[in-house]
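Recall that a protein's primary structure is simply its ordered list of amino acids. Everything else, from secondary elements to tertiary packing, is in principle encoded there. The following example makes that idea concrete.
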Amino acid sequence: MSYQLKTGPSVELPLLAVKTVRQQYQTSADLLWLLDEFRRMVNVCIMIGIEQKVSSLRTLSSRAYSRLSRDMLGYYRLGAIGAATVIIRNYRKAERRNARTKLPYAKRLVLTSCYGFKIDDNLLRLPVKPRKFVYLKLNSHTLKVLSGLNVRSVTLTPASLSISYSKETVEIEPEGYIGVDRILDNVTTATNKTVRTFDLSQATRIKSGYRYVKSRCKRNDERMRTRVFSKYGEKQRNRVQPLLHNVSKRIVDEAKTGRYGIVMERLTGMRRLYRRGNGQSRRYRAKMNSCSYGELQRQVEYKARWDGVKVIYVPARDTSKRCSICGYKTLESTQRRLWCPHCGAILDRDENAARNIAAGGLRFSPNLPPDEAMVEEREPENATLILKVDGGKLSQQPMVDNVNHLLKTNRT
């Protein structure tokens, strides 16, 4: 990452980029016992943390470590405490929003460890008990991916294992920026030269189909509904994820080839727009909430970090409404078109948003030159104000005129 020092030139420090490779494996009784014991330890730590109102990793370790199973190795106990800390913090955050939030507990059989494992030839060695190991065979794809890289951690489920690996990269100083605008059915990218649109309507149709299938499940059995929803949810992810990976890979490749930085919107609180009680239909809310805003950004970010491409987030306010040519507010036209009353330009809504996002990368970059600052755009004195767009300016204009009149009177 590049840091601008107060004295002297910028210094480039190495970035730690992390990826994960996943494969299937045949489980055994020893591994199932290990996964079950790990889940039990996580639930014990959650209970202790909630009872004693503890969410700090250090404090929870001192209070829960001695109460965990002595049959488990020490780094598994520390891993369970770390997993419980994350769950407790998420519970505290949810409880602040809704006091009736249910107490959390770990249901899935998942184990994550950063210590004790070893990769030798084509085998992964995992300790189960002191001086007792299990060996898992790694396939050729996993071995090829991990060749020459640092292995960080291993995550196990009853059906698959995931190995996290890392490398150090140096962030490329961008020569320009590419803006990424994400809506329900497509992704639009724009630079100062080109505009590209990636169609994601197939992902929307897939999600709509699985929502309909799950809505047909009318059985009054919570366990059965959970099983059915999990089954079709996994099928949906398996079909949608490749589409998102294809788009994110193409975006990062374009940025790397053109030496661009990637600029995306900061979409914090997006789901609040589609809650019950906002005057929207249930079907519309379900469709909008199913859009993978954050997942596409997550994929773009880690892939860009792996290739040393800079990623910047800018506020999402008025990126579609503001004219990308002159900066004034636009009016809605037809078929997702915008009309700027100041410069007369007719703009595509998605292309206009992507260009505004790319321009925001220049203003919010940490390496912004001193002479490039965001300047407030002021209306000329004889400008014609437009109803429904400049309503605030209309209400403030008489007050401004009165102040100017008083100042002139005092001077004379």
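The longest strand covers residues 14-24. The CA atoms of residues 180 and 189 lie 5 Å apart.
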